[in-house]
Amino acid sequence: MPDRRPATLPPGPADERRYVSPMPKTGHVALAGVPNVGKSSLLNRLVGEHLAIVSPKPQATRLPVVGLRTEGDTQFVFHDLPGLLEPRYMMQSRMRQAALDQLARSHAIVYLHPAPAGVAPPFESLAGLEGPPRAPVLTVYTKADLVPAAARAALGPDALLVSAETGEGIPTLLARLAVLLPEGEFEFDPEDIGTQPLRFFVVEYLREAAFEVLEDELPYAFTAEVEEFREHSSPVYIRVTLLVERESQKGMIIGQGGRTIKAIGSHARTRLEALLGKPVYLDCWVKVLPNWRRNAASLSRLGFPEDAPAS
Ligand SMILES: Nc1nc2c(ncn2[C@@H]2O[C@H](COP(=O)(O)OP(=O)(O)OP(=O)(O)O)[C@@H](O)[C@H]2O)c(=O)[nH]1
Ligand SMILES: [Mg+2]
Q1: How far is the CA of 59 from the centre of ligand 2 (A)?
Q2: Domain residue limits at 213
Q3: Are residues 167 and 23 part of one domain?
C-alpha cells in the first residue's frame, strides 16, 4: 500500500492512523430529475463512455443505468435514473418505481435541473415525494454551456453548474460528492465502468436508434429483447427481436426495402462494437407484443420491476 501521507503534515501517532492507510470511500449516487434534463449525458461524461442512451426526446431512459468512476481512494457508483414524472400508464409507473427504489438506496442524490430553466424547485415537490429523501440532495444545474453569464448569476452565488458537453463543473461535482460518501471497500474493480450485462446495452442502443430514426409515438412503443448472444464467436453474434405494440407498426420499423430496420441495427451495432472492442453481427427480427407497455407480465419479462406492494 503506498504511503499517502501528505508531505506537509507534521508527524504524530494520530496522523499515522489517519493518513498512512486511509479507508477507501464508496457509495451509490442517484442522478435524478424530470425527463430530458441531461441525466444520461452527465452519466456518460462522468464515466467517459457512451453507456447510457441520450435523445432530444424525453423519457429515453426507462431503467436505471449504472456507471462507475474510481478516483484514487473513492469509488462513485452512479445511477442514471428514469425521469421523474406523474405516471399515465403501467410502464411509466414501473419506471417511476425503479427511480424511487434507487433513490431510497442511494447515499447521495444529485438533483439535476437545466440551467436555462432558471432556479430549481424543491426536489421533494418535483419528485412528488411525501417527505425529504433519506440521502442528502445536491442540486446541480445542467447544460451550463447554454447559459450566458447573466443567467448564471440569477441561479445564486453557490449554484453548481455542469456541462456534459464541455465537462465544466465535473471536478467540483465529484469533490462535493466525495465528502458525502461513506467509508468502505470498493464494490467493483477500479477499472470497470459499468455493472450491467451486455444484453442490457444491446436493448438500450437499439432503443437509442429508435429514438433517432422513428417518429412521433413509435419510439415509445418500441423495445427489444435479446434471443441469442454468442460472445465467443467472431464476429460476436447477437439475435434480437424488435418489439412493437401493434401489427400496423411492424411495417414502419422495417421501412421501405428494409431501410429503417437496417438503420436501427447499424446504429446499435456501432455502439456495441465501441463498447466491446470487437466486431458484432446483429441479427434483427420484428414481432408484435400486443400493448406491452400496459401489460404487467410483458413489463416484468422486459425487466421492469414490479410496483411496490400496497402496505
Ligand atoms: N448543450 C447541452 N445539451 C445537453 C447537455 N446535456 C444534455 N444535453 C441534451 O439534452 C437532451 C437530453 O439529454 P439526456 O441526457 O438524454 O437527458 P435525460 O435527463 O437522461 O432524459 P430522459 O432519459 O429522457 O429522462 C439531449 O438532446 C442532450 O444532447 C449539456 O450539457 N449541454
Ligand atoms: Mg436519460
Answers
A1: 7
A2: 198-301
A3: yes
The Cα–Cα gap between 267 and 219 comes to 15
Residues 87 and 169 in one domain: yes
Closest ligand 1 atom number to CA of residue 164: 31
Query: Can you give the pTM of this predicted structure?
Result: 0.92
Ligand nearest the Cα of residue 52 is 2
> Is 136 found in the same domain as 102?
yes
Residue with cell 458525502: 180
Q: 203 and 172: one domain?
A: no
CA of 58 from ligand 1 middle (Å) equals 9
Residue 235 lies in a domain: yes
Q: Whose CA is nearest to atom 13 of ligand 1?
A: 38
Sign of the CA dihedral with 281 first, then 285, 286, and 288 last: negative
Q: How many structural domains compose the chain?
A: 2
Question: Pocket of ligand 1, candidates 39, 54, 61: which has the most ligand atoms within 8 Å of its Cβ, to mutate?
Answer: 54
The helix (run of H) or strand (run of E) holding residue 177 is helix 170-178
User: Is the domain of 212 the same as that of 286?
Assistant: yes
Task: Report how far ligand 2's centroid is from the alpha carbon of 33 (Å).
Answer: 10
- Residues 47 and 84 grouped into a single domain: yes
Q: Mind listing the pLDDT tens digit for each residue in 253-300?
A: 999 999 999 999 999 999 999 999 999 999 999 999 999 999 999 999
**Which residue's entry shows cell 418500441?**
222
Judgement on whether residues 129 and 250 belong to the same structural domain of the protein: no
What residues does ligand 1 touch, defined as CB less than 6 Å away? 35-41, 54-56, 58-61, 83, 142-143, 145-146, 163-165
Is 141 in contact with 161 (CB distance < 8 Å)? yes
Q: Which three cell numbers stand for residue 7?
A: 508531505
